[in-house]
Structures are given as structure tokens and as C-alpha cells.
Write a structure and sequence with these properties.
- The protein has 373 residues and is of the alpha/beta class.
- Helices cover 39% and strands 23% of the residues.
- A nine-stranded mixed beta sheet has the order 6-5-1-9-10-11-12-13-14, with helices on both faces.
- The N terminus is likely disordered.
Length: 373
């Protein structure tokens, strides 16, 4: 489904950016996107359903580790063939964006890690993928890890945030980070960061509004809607673009006592109170292999719906759905920041996600071969 009116609104939203710094500075530094999140080192392996049952886990879900889950990490290292991959939803998106965008040093990432071997490994692996990291180093805590349990092509994520949970806004306020903030026109933060530093998210939102920049967020998980609602509610008015999958969207709708229909939820979320009236809000709901729904507020304050089907993959082609949503956002952003049409941005998102789910973990092979026809 195409809508030229919605596409025009979308292009206008991107083209009215203020960089907050001279064009020469931003061009020389190639700064395009700043992502803030919870950097984790993924401990990825394939498991049987019995392991999920043992720890009370569900496929297709993401949770924060409780005390009962802590033995899981050692069990994986001891008993399973594991692979270490840079993780955390925002860091996955940063790596995917950089891979798709292909311009050196365009992607900057902020989060907190420990002063340990896992932290060093995480820095090395992320920089290898072209992302410039600006980690806050916590000398007292260990680097955060995430158990990625792949079971019958679905994944269950158990995140032990550790140092990632200790990010401080004082780091964001430092001259080094503020120089980056002033230079980039786009900001993306996942909902998971609501559990860590919502005040930093609000500060990003206020900067974006004051400088007419674009702030994008992700609902990220149903538990954030249920248990971190006050924090989410404080950030939503600053969001120019909101991402979510169908489960997260329905959780959001349920919280508001809205009808269960995704279209109804998307339309209502699109007109949620907004700080920057100069930018029409865009809401993007993915549904796995089903159509992606995009809601755009037009100039008359009506919500237009666009829908796009992802390319079909055969069951045997799908290896691991871990990172599918993160990679969709990375691909989407790689065109969004150029002011491309919504159709083209969604196509890039679909293609990027299709590549990631055909590998084990959020990893890349060669350069992207995507093209828009």
C-alpha cells in the first residue's frame, strides 16, 4: 500500500532537521546516528525445550534475570557450545545500521560496561563492525551478559544487565558526549533503557525538540509497558518515531484499555500527545512474516495507514529469529536518515532482518546486497 501524501510528510520530517553544529563539522565526522542502550555480550547457543522449562522461560520472550536465573550462565559456558556476539537491542541496531549504511564512523553508541575481559571483548567486536563506542566504564560491576537460548528457531533472552544497569546521566552530560549529541541529527533509544536511565532519555528528547532533530524509540517488550509505565509515559511525548512488534503493541493497547485491533492501537498511538508539533509522528508495527503496519500523521492531523509485506522465506532458511526486530530498525534507519520514502525504508528493514534470521545470532557476511526496485 502506498500513499504519496504520507511519504511527503515523512520526507518533510527528515528534511527539516537542525544538526546543532556546523555542516562542516558533521560532514567531517560523518556523525549521523547516536544510539543509547544496554550493551551486553550475548552468550548464544541452541538448547532443548527442557532447559527453558528448568528455568521457567518461554520462547520468543525477553526478560531480566532474577536470582533463580544466575546459574544458567555458568551452565551454558560449562555444558554448551557457545558463541560470543555483541548484543543488547540498541547495540544490535547500531551494528545493523552501520552495516547497511556503509559510511565509516556514522554510528555512535553509548552505554555502560565493566572493566573486565568481557568488556574488552565487547569493545573489540563492536568496533570491528564499524560502530564507535563511548562506553562508561564501571570498575565495580561486571559487563552485562545476555543468554540467547535458541530453541526450535525461536529465542528466549535472559539479560543480566550488571554494569549496563549502572549508566549515569553525568556521563551523558560530559563534554565528550555532549559534543556528539550536538553533532548528530538522529537519536534512537530502546525501551529497555527505561529500566536504567529514563532521565537520560528525557534529556535526549528535550535536545531533539529544542533543535528540531529526530528522536526514535522502541516499545521493546511487554514487561516495560506493564512495570515501567511511568518512565515510558515520560518519554513518549518526545518520540517522533515509535517501533514495536504486534505483542508489544497489544500490551500497550491493553494498558490503555484500547481495543485489541492493531490498526486501532497504531492510530491512537500516532496521535499520542507530542512535544514537537513540527514533526508528524510515525508508528511502525512489525508482525514477523505478516505485514508491517506504518501509521503516519498527515498535515490535517489524520492518521494514514501503509502496509508492506516482507519477502517470504522458506522454513528451512530461517536459522535464528534473535535480533530480527533490532535488525529491522537498523535497516529502516539506514534509509530513513536519507529522507527516503517509507516504502523504501521498510523494504531495507525487511531485507536486513531477513539476512539476520538466516544466521545464528546478529552477525553479518560481506557487504549488504540490498537494492530497492
Amino acid at each position: 500500500v502506498r500513499s504519496s501524501a504520507a511519504s511527503d510528510v515523512y520526507k518533510r520530517q527528515v528534511s527539516t532537521q537542525s544538526t546543532g553544529s556546523s555542516p562542516q563539522l558533521r560532514q567531517s565526522l560523518n556523525m549521523t546516528l547516536l544510539i543509547i542502550g544496554n550493551p551486553l555480550l550475548d552468550i548464544s547457543t541452541e538448547v532443548q525445550p527442557s532447559l527453558l522449562e528448568k528455568y521457567g522461560l518461554k520462547s520468543g520472550n525477553a526478560i531480566l534475570a532474577e536470582s533463580k536465573h544466575i546459574p544458567l550462565y555458568q551452565e551454558l559456558v560449562t555444558d554448551y557450545p557457545i558463541e560470543y556476539i555483541p548484543g543488547g537491542a540498541g547495540q544490535n541496531t547500531a551494528r545493523c545500521f552501520q552495516w547497511m549504511f556503509q559510511k565509516p564512523d556514522s554510528t555512535h553508541y553509548i552505554g555502560c560496561i565493566g572493566s573486565d575481559n568481557f568488556g574488552t571483548l565487547l569493545q573489540q567486536l563492536t568496533r570491528k563492525d564499524g560502530v564507535i563506542t563511548h562506553y562508561l566504564i564501571d570498575k565495580e560491576a561486571s559487563t552485562g551478559t545476555c543468554a540467547v537460548l535458541i530453541c526450535e528457531k525461536e529465542r528466549s533472552l535472559v539479560a543480566n544487565l550488571a554494569a549496563a544497569n549502572n549508566y549515569k546521566k553525568s556521563h551523558f552530560d560530559s563534554p565528550e558526549i555532549q559534543a556528539i549529541v550536538q553533532s548528530v541529527p538522529f537519536f534512537y533509544i530502546t525501551g529497555f533503557f527505561l529500566t536504567v536511565s529514563p532521565e537520560t532519555m528525557v534529556a535526549v528528547g528535550e535536545h531533539a525538540v529544542a533543535n528540531n532533530k529526530t528522536f526514535l524509540i522502541n516499545i521493546s517488550a511487554p514487561f516495560l509497558v506493564d512495570f515501567f509505565w511511568d518512565q515510558m509515559n515520560s518519554v513518549l511525548p518526545y518520540a517522533d518515531v515509535i517501533f514495536g512488534n504486534e505483542t508489544e503493541a497489544q500490551a500497550f493497547g491493553k494498558k490503555q484499555n484500547w481495543p485489541e485491533d492493531l490498526v486501532e492501537i497504531g492510530q491512537r498511538l500516532a496521535i499520542w500527545p507530542k512535544k514537537n508539533a513540527n514533526k508528524p509522528r510515525i508508528v511502525v508495527f512489525t508482525q514477523g512474516s505478516k505485514e508491517t503496519l506504518v501509521f503516519v500523521v498527515n498535515e490535517t492531523n489524520n492518521v494514514e495507514l501503509l502496509s508492506f509485506y516482507p519477502q517470504k522465506l522458506e522454513a528451512h532458511q530461517i536459522i535464528d529469529t534473535n535480533g530480527a526486530g533490532d535488525s529491522f530498525v537498523g535497516g529502516f534507519l539506514s534509509e530513513f536518515v536519507k529522507g527516503s520514502s517509507i516504502e523504501k525504508a521498510v523494504s531495507a528493514g525487511h531485507w536486513c532482518a531477513s539476512q539476520i534470521i538466516q544466521t545464528s545470532g546478529c552477525k553479518f557476511v560481506g557487504k549488504p546486497t540490498w537494492s530497492f526496485e
